């Protein structure tokens, strides 16, 4: 009965309109025009998203300051217009055209144009001598060409259907008219550590080194007017001190990296704990240059031996779910739940190892051809890597595999495990854009020198990733990436552990936040307000 | 006297040079590298580009040579991870550490002298026991633990004082705001340093009390207060001064911990961050500056000896 359906649709639209009107009215009444928010960051930020030192302490501040061509839709994390109003890809997938917002301006009043995009990519990110951060994500991009002031074309060396996702992932555009003459546009101190020219809703008002960065509304912002008088990031290196400040009322929101710290805030009526999702997967990487791990049964056995739900309960306080691959459930249709899962089953683990020729030796440790199954497992002091590693060690001990855990300082751990690939097994995580294209962590081309840490080489999987890059329609992508997930769940290039929830605690006086994901939330900072 | 000062200054230069050599080669022996380049998600290509920018492909001797030539000219290089000249970073942080250090030193000295004198005067009485308990606590409780407890008590529970930082963005610039931020870190630091002063003051006073001139003063019938302050105290100050020289060194190592706990943007926190991130030029600069301060303070202490005790002549 079509007429009724139309009516229903109309009613729904009306209801939605009314609801949003009510929300808008409520927020207009409550919202304090002189309100300000105070957050924490753990070190002095570097206010240039492409500087190699601009990492966790800078990401969210730079997200407020530097608008991107593309951002996340705050409802489902799909690409949404940012500085680019729209985009399309050529039929062969080898070029993408982006149409820029003609009304966008820099905070000094100079118009934002195609020159800025060309400069950001060709002169900063793609200039290999600069070592720009996240540059490897744009490896398929050859160069960016200006068509006119408000149109650019990304020319690719191979199809890259996930390009918009990567453009939404900490990929702020930097100003050609300010940094264009610099010898190295990524290391201009007056910009990075002072008062950068930006396109975002807020700009830097004051930067007191070691103390705080205060952002104030950018009068030249192209989008909706910001609703706060200021946003301040206090520099507080210690996580416990951040929580103390939050409890004392000096901070409005804190990200919790260690769920064990949540106990102190759980009962405070002014604070709200929120779970955010992000495409993060924890893993155990087995060094696949080691012959023992090249047998897929050994990898399957080592994963089956680990009780992942128990570790999630014990270490993550329940804030996480078991991982099946690199594509997290937040990717909805693209996430494939129907793959091999390797639930906790020590008996099956022993069987698989026996099939692979590993039998119990006199001391209880498995052996093959007189060699004991001993694994060197370095771990770095960061987050909850050490307790997780020790639990994995216990589970492996239960099936007769001896892991020798060596705890080392974080920087030295990276040097050893990532740079030198000097490990047998190691536990870590990848945090990625919410796109199914996770190829850089698996592709043969990323072995030894790139992000393929286990040095996994699988021509079958390589070929699937290539097809995924070329797939443009959602149906095609779902089909290809299901194939990829099935292959990975079976072959286990990494032992997939869990997808952690990202936890933040915020004051209930804050309104207008998009709790789905912190990057998306900070891309729409002009929505934030404070209730009276 | 002039010859003494010149000799000590020259020795100081040699000491600083040795400090720079040892630091330089020690940090390059440590595993890892500048965190800008040695990050978990870096690729070999990125690492190569960045290490090249930092000049880390030169052999160590060449790098040390370049560094020492620059340093002599007053150029300490540029921080790998912060992108700022090391001299500028040190000058941003030094006043904060001096503020914290001086406040803690003054508090520790005054409190230490007071408690030490009380303990000596009421030797073996209950006052002495209370003082010795307090100084044992100050001596044995680690600064970071005390800092966290102080934050929980004074910032979170009572909400009297801010938990961390040097100023708040809302009260920036106001003296009251700065003082409020100073109280907890300086108090905790002072509490951990004070026992040194207490012990030395007490034992020096007891020693002096047995000296002939004090017995004579008492014999002359001088009031106990006059004996204490005019005769005993002045002479007891020499060992106290000596310990203050040592306390200054302890102050630096103590403030490294305290600055991290209280988010105090001083040299100590800078040094820790630089060490974690293998920011070689900053590590070298901070170590050299700390060394310079220790050398200068010790020289001043030696000169003060002469002022307090005329028998000491620096020839």
- Helix and strand content put the structural class of chain B at mainly alpha
Number of helices of chain A: 16
Tell me which CATH architecture of the largest domain in chain B applies here. Answer: Orthogonal Bundle
What is the straight-line distance between the termini of chain B? 6 Å
> What would you call the quaternary organization?
heterodimer
How far do the termini of chain A sit from each other?
49 Å
Helical/strand content category of chain A: alpha+beta
Count all strands of chain A and give the number: 25
The best one-word shape of chain A is: globular
β-sheet strand percentage of chain A: 15-25%
CATH superfamily of the largest domain in chain B: MetI-like
Count of distinct structural domains of chain B = 2
Strand content of chain B: under 5%
The average pLDDT score of chain B comes to 87
**What is the CATH top level name of the largest domain in chain B?**
Mainly Alpha
Structure description:
The complex is a heterodimer of chains A (532) and B (315). Chain A has 532 residues and is an alpha+beta fold. Chain A is built from 16 helices and 25 strands. A four-stranded mixed beta sheet of chain A has the order 1-10-9-8, with helices on one face. A four-stranded antiparallel beta sheet of chain A has the order 4-5-7-6. In chain A, strand 2 and strand 3 (79-81) form a beta hairpin. In chain A, helix 9 (296-304) runs antiparallel to helix 11 (346-355) and helix 14 (459-470) packs antiparallel against helix 15 (474-491). Residues 1-6 of chain A have low confidence and may be disordered. Chain B has 315 residues and is an all-alpha fold. Chain B is globular, with a radius of gyration of 24 Å. In chain B, helix 4 (86-121) runs antiparallel to helix 9, helix 5 crosses helix 7 and helix 10 runs antiparallel to helix 11. Chain B has two domains: 18-72, no CATH class; 94-314, MetI-like fold. The mean pLDDT of chain B is 87. Chain B is built from eleven helices and no strands. At the A-B interface, strand 10, helix 7 and helix 13 of A face helix 2, helix 4, helix 6 and helix 10 of B.
